Amino acid sequence: MNSVTEPWLSRRPDLWLPDILHKTATGGLRAGCDAQLLGICLTTGLIRFAPFAIPCPVGIDDAELPTVRRQEGPDHRRLRLLGLSLAKAIDQQSLIIEEHRAPIRDSHTFLDVYIEARFGRLAIELGARDGRDIPPLLRCVVDHVLVLPFSGWSGATFVGGHFFRPDSRPLAMPSFKAMADAFEHQTTTISQNQ
What we know:
- The chain is α+β, with helices and mostly antiparallel strands.
- The protein is built from 6 helices and 6 strands, in the order αααβαβββαββα.
- It has a 6-stranded mixed sheet with strand order 1-6-5-4-3-2, with helices on both faces.
- The N and C termini lie far apart (34 Å).
């Protein structure tokens, strides 16, 4: 994933963070979320940010979607299918855990997709995510946080996401072929389990 950041993103994260992290599938902002600490970390350079796009197949059929977890809707299930495919495309030999419980602050949170790969640990967050969770996740739990927000879904061939990492840990972008192969593997696995 490219770590080049537009200068205005680093200087004024307060203008864009709530929109990309806290927006729900219906377009409103998720209540009770805050991104001030993350904004400070981005402004001071403790955390790096880069937007990215991943190739995804056109026309995801409802039959190909993973089973419902907790109270998720169809848009979140589509993002989860893409997140699981992205995890497999990044490292085919990685350990992938859905709904992983992770300790942060004085409590815990559930990571939508947790990956232990050869190069480190990743969290892929789907839909809306509280910005307060990202700095402690990067400090104590994972090496990279990738967010696939509802606002990044265009229904086209690419989905826009946001990549957060500590200053010195780059992550390679998977190829279109790796992403297509991983998507095919995920949909085949889902079909066999239903």
